[in-house]
C-alpha cells in the first residue's frame, strides 16, 4: 500500500489561542485532499499543479500513474498512520535522533479533523486502514 504521510503540527498555544483559524486551515487541507481525490480517473490536473515544485510532468506521470490519488490524499489519521508514526518514533530513538520515546496517540488531537470532515460531509469519503495498511469497510 502506498500512502503519503502528510500531517500538520502546531504548537498547542496557537491552537488554544486561535481555534477558529486552526479549523479553517484543517478544512482547507481537507478540501484540497478531496480535490486531489476527485481527480483519481484523470490525474493530469494534479500532476500539472505538482510541477510547480520543479519536478516535470512526465516524472509525476511515470512515478504516480498507478497510484490511487484518493488513497494518497486521505487526511485520515487511522490505525495505519498511528502505527507508522509510533514505529518511526521507536526508530528515531534507536538511531539516537531523539532522547525519549512517546506515544503518537498522546500527541495527536483529532478534534479539528473530525469537525472539518463533518462540516464538509466527508466523514465516510475515505476508508480508514488498519495497522497493517489494509483498508477497512
Would you kindly provide a written description of the structure presented here, covering whatever features stand out?
- The protein is mostly helical.
- It has one domain: D-Maltodextrin-Binding Protein, domain 2.
- Helices cover 54% and strands 0% of the residues.
- It contains eight helices and no strands.
- The protein has helices spanning 12-17, 19-37, 44-50, 57-64, 69-73, 79-94, 104-107, 111-119.
- Helix 2 packs across helix 8 (111-119).
- The two termini are 16 Å apart.
- 12% of the residues are buried.
- The mean pLDDT is 91.
How are the elements arranged and paired?
Elements (H helix, E strand, L loop, with lengths): L11 H6 L1 H19 L6 H7 L6 H8 L4 H5 L5 H16 L9 H4 L3 H9 L18
Helix pairs in contact: 2-8
Helix residue percentage = 40-55%
At the fold tier of CATH, the topology name is: D-Maltodextrin-Binding Protein, domain 2
- Architecture in CATH? 3-Layer(aba) Sandwich
Low-confidence stretches: none
Largest sheet: none
SS content category: mainly alpha
Mean pLDDT: 91
CATH class: Alpha Beta
**How many strands in all?**
0
Give the topology string: H per helix, E per strand.
HHHHHHHH
Rg (C-alpha, Å)? 17 Å
Count of discrete alpha- or pi-helical segments spanning 4 or more residues? 8
Query: How many domains comprise the coordinates?
Result: 1
Query: What fraction of the residues are assigned to beta strands by DSSP?
Result: under 5%
Query: CATH superfamily, called what?
Result: Periplasmic binding protein-like II
Shape: globular
| Straight-line distance between termini | 16 Å
Amino acid at each position: 500500500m502506498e500512502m503519503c504521510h502528510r500531517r500538520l503540527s502546531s504548537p498547542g498555544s496557537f491552537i488554544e489561542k486561535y481555534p477558529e483559524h486552526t479549523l479553517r486551515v484543517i478544512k482547507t487541507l481537507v478540501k484540497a485532499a478531496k480535490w486531489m481525490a476527485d481527480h483519481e480517473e484523470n490525474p493530469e490536473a494534479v500532476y500539472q499543479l505538482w510541477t510547480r515544485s520543479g519536478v516535470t510532468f512526465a516524472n509525476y506521470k511515470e512515478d504516480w500513474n498507478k497510484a490511487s490519488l484518493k488513497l494518497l490524499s486521505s487526511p485520515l489519521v487511522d490505525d495505519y498512520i498511528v502505527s507508522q508514526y509510533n514505529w518511526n518514533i521507536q526508530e528515531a530513538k534507536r538511531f539516537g535522533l531523539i532522547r525519549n520515546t512517546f506515544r503518537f496517540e498522546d500527541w495527536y488531537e483529532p478534534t479539528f479533523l473530525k469537525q472539518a470532515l463533518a462540516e464538509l460531509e466527508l466523514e465516510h469519503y475515505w476508508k480508514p486502514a488498519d495497522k497493517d495498511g489494509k483498508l477497512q469497510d
